[in-house]
Amino acid sequence: MQEKGLLIVLSGPSGVGKGTVRKELFSQHDTAFEYSVSATTRLPREGEQNGVDYFFKTREEFEEMIREDQLLEFAEFVGNYYGTPVEYVRETLDAGRDVFLEIEVQGASQVRKKFPEGLFIFLAPPSLSELENRIVTRGTETEDIIKGRMKAAREELEMMELYDYVVENDHVENAANRVKSIVVAEHCRRERVQHRYKKMLEVE
Ligand SMILES: Nc1nc2c(ncn2[C@@H]2O[C@H](COP(=O)(O)OP(=O)(O)O)[C@@H](O)[C@H]2O)c(=O)[nH]1
Ligand SMILES: Nc1ncnc2c1ncn2[C@@H]1O[C@H](COP(=O)(O)OP(=O)(O)O)[C@@H](O)[C@H]1O
């Protein structure tokens, strides 16, 4: 029987650098896992492509996906829906390939309940002041919203203890390399290797 792939979930507070670290990981030629493209109701930003960056949906279309149970998880984040189409995840894992999700923390908690065997990695900022710095530098939020995000970030940071690993996003390349090392280590730890050895020992 085909061994299943590993479900890798990268999450963490808004502004910590999840998207940046994910893009760094997927720009490296030796990245051996598949990116799960999310569905969202937010409008495309300049340069974003449907089916590559996100599947862009209307609210009605998204709500239909929810009703039809097409999402592994979904969350409402700053006024828009974001969710993971379940079919791609299941098919890819069943084919023995690893799937990578980059999602916010509410969605990650839902995945934890449905896929406890997944690998959950929390991306943490070097400090709260550096997190604030990154949100301010991105320049997409007003002062009031930044205060709200920082309050939310404290609650999100408390969820760190529910994850298997914490990676500090000090430098993007370092963080991406740590994520890759964790995935390699996890493969060594998991049953799939043991199965191989079991079979070998049975033959001898
Ligand atoms: N729960 C959930 N969160 C997602 C999904 N896709 C993206 N996100 C998260 O939604 C948040 C907003 O994403 P986006 O609008 O692209 O903005 P940015 O990542 O902050 O530049 C980020 O924290 C993403 O990690 C998803 O399928 N499910
Ligand atoms: N290691 C890092 N050092 C400095 N700035 C970073 C680092 N990682 C990300 N950033 C910056 O922080 C901001 C938030 O990153 P982003 O990837 O959008 O976060 P998230 O997806 O977690 O909301 C962006 O302006 C990004 O360029």
Q: By CATH's scheme, which homologous superfamily of the domain at 7-36 and 98-203 applies?
A: P-loop containing nucleotide triphosphate hydrolases
CATH topology of the domain at 7-36 and 98-203: Rossmann fold
Beta-strand residue fraction:
15-25%
CATH architecture of the domain at 7-36 and 98-203: 3-Layer(aba) Sandwich
Tell me how many strands there are: 9
Number of continuous helical runs: 8
What is the approximate shape?
Answer: globular
Main sheet? 5 strands, parallel
Poorly predicted segments: none
Average per-residue pLDDT, rounded, comes to 91
- Gap from first CA to last CA: 21 Å
Helix content: 40-55%
Say which molecules are bound, naming each kind only once.
guanosine-5'-diphosphate, adenosine-5'-diphosphate
Structural class per helix/strand content?
alpha/beta
Order of helices and strands: EHEEEHEEHEHEHHEHH
Gyration radius, rounded: 18 Å
Question: What is the C-level CATH assignment of the domain at 7-36 and 98-203?
Answer: Alpha Beta
User: Going across the major beta sheet, what is the strand order?
Assistant: 2-7-1-8-9
Function: Essential for recycling GMP and indirectly, cGMP.
Binding site for ATP: 12-19
GO molecular function, one term: GMP kinase activity
Protein name: Guanylate kinase
